[in-house]
Amino acid sequence: MIEFGKLEYYLLVVNAIGALAYLINLLLYRHTANGRIDVIVTMVSLLGGSAGMLLMILLFDRKAEKENMMSRVFIICIFIIQVIMLLIFKGHHAEHFTFAFWKFFAEHRILLIYLGIMNLVTFIVFAIDKVNARANRSRIKIVTLLGLSFAGGSVGGLISMYLFRHKTQKDYFTVGMPLIIVMQVVVLFYVMNAGW
Description:
Number of strands: 0
Helix content: over 70%
Keywords: Membrane, Transmembrane, Transmembrane helix
Largest sheet: none
Transmembrane segments: 7-28, 40-60, 72-89, 109-128, 140-163, 175-192
Shape: flat
Protein name: DUF1294 domain-containing protein
Organism: Eubacterium ramulus ATCC 29099
Order of helices and strands: HHHHHHHH
Structural class: mainly alpha
Number of helices: 8
InterPro entries: DUF1294
Distance between the termini: 25 Å
């Protein structure tokens, strides 16, 4: 049987609150013009309630729309960072931490090649979307652009955004892309120090 300590009880409570806050916010988005509680959702997410919110997204709010894109990017990134923080707190890591990213990439060249390709592809896809926007042609979906960024192309996407001045007015890109990069650095740091 799993033993629960104070941390586990705290996480259960804060995630229940997170799920409830997300549902209330979802209902407010659907039924009112400006009665949202985004700040509360953000705070509860940062306090550890992102798993409950992610569960509510999966159960009740699967349709990706421009209005909910920023909260999705934020909640997913915060969730992944919090899972890694929990793993580190619970002792699931190597004996000593290292920040030798280049040494890690030298030992795992396939990962470096993958990230290089993903960043190049993402850069090109953002550029194509900019060209399509100027020519009033069919656009690339926001979910595709963010998906490529989540899959490892975030740096290429960010460079393309500012080089071509594309998507620089959308918070799910201007805030979301740096947040995705931070999340990916945290994931990389943990993988380097997992002690497998």
